[in-house]
Structure to design on (234 residues):
C-alpha cells in the first residue's frame, strides 16, 4: 500500500524535521510505501526511508518564474517525487489541464514518481454518473496513463477537509471505473482519518490513501500506516 501525507501550507522546516523524526519509528519495520509532501520551504535532504516529495514545482530547471521552484531546487535534496494536479492548484490557483499536462510531461521526462490527482466538485457529483465520469476523465487529457512511475489519487473535491466522505460503496464504484483508465496504483483522498482509514483501505481497488489535515499529527499518520500493516496490504 501507499500511505501518503500532503502537509500543504503547514509545519515549518524545524517542525517538519521533528515530524519526520517521529515517523521514523513507525516506518522502521513497515512494509508500506510511505510518502510525505512537506511545504516547499520545508524541503530538505532528510535521512530517512520515507519518500519525500514536492507539492509543486515549475517545469523548468531554473529561470525567471517568481515564487516558483524548479528542477535544480529538487535535485539539491535528491527529490524525485512530485504531486501534480491537486484540486487546490486546479480550483484555487487556476492551473489549466493544458499546463498540468505540460508539467506532467516535464517531470515524466525527468523520471519522477508522479502522484497525479483527479476528482470532482459537489455540483458534478450530484449530477449523473456519466457527467461525473466525463468530468474526471477530462483530467486525464494529455496524461500518459501507462507511465511506469505513475500513481493516481482520486480525491472528491467536496470531501477534502470537510469531514464529508463518500460511502464505501461510492468509493468502490468510482475506483472500479478509474481502474479502467489506468493500471497505476490508485489512492483515495478526501477526509481520510484515523477512524475510517482501515475501512477505506479494505475497499477493492484502493491501493492506498492520500491524507491531508489528519496527517499533520505524526502519531495520527503513524496509526494510518499501522492500519495498512495490520491489513497485510503492501
Amino acid at each position: 500500500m501507499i500511505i501518503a501525507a500532503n502537509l500543504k501550507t503547514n509545519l515549518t522546516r524545524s517542525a517538519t524535521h521533528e515530524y519526520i523524526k517521529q515517523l521514523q519509528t513507525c516506518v522502521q519495520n513497515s512494509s508500506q510505501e510511505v510518502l510525505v509532501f512537506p511545504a516547499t520551504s520545508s524541503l530538505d535532504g532528510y535521512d530517512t526511508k520515507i519518500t519525500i516529495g514536492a507539492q509543486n514545482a515549475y517545469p523548468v530547471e531554473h529561470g525567471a518564474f517568481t515564487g516558483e521552484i524548479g528542477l535544480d531546487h529538487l535535485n539539491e535534496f535528491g527529490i524525485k517525487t512530485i504531486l501534480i494536479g491537486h484540486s487546490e492548484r486546479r480550483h484555487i490557483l487556476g492551473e489549466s489541464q493544458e499546463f498540468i499536462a505540460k508539467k506532467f510531461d516535464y517531470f515524466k521526462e525527468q523520471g519522477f514518481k508522479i502522484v497525479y490527482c483527479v476528482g470532482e466538485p459537489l455540483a458534478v457529483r450530484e449530477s449523473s454518473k456519466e457527467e461525473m465520469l466525463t468530468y474526471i476523465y477530462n483530467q486525464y487529457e494529455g496524461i500518459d496513463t501507462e507511465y511506469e512511475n505513475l500513481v493516481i489519487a482520486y480525491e472528491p473535491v467536496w470531501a477534502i477537509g470537510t469531514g464529508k466522505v463518500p460511502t464505501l460503496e461510492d468509493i468502490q464504484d468510482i475506483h472500479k471505473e478509474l481502474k479502467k483508465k489506468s493500471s497505476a496504483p490508485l489512492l483515495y483522498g478526501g477526509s481520510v482519518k484515523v477512524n475510517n482509514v482501515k475501512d477505506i483501505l479494505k475497499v477493492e481497488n484502493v491501493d492506498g490513501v492520500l491524507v491531508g489535515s489528519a496527517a499533520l499529527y505524526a502519531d495520527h499518520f503513524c496509526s494510518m500506516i499501522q492500519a495498512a500493516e495490520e491489513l497485510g496490504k503492501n
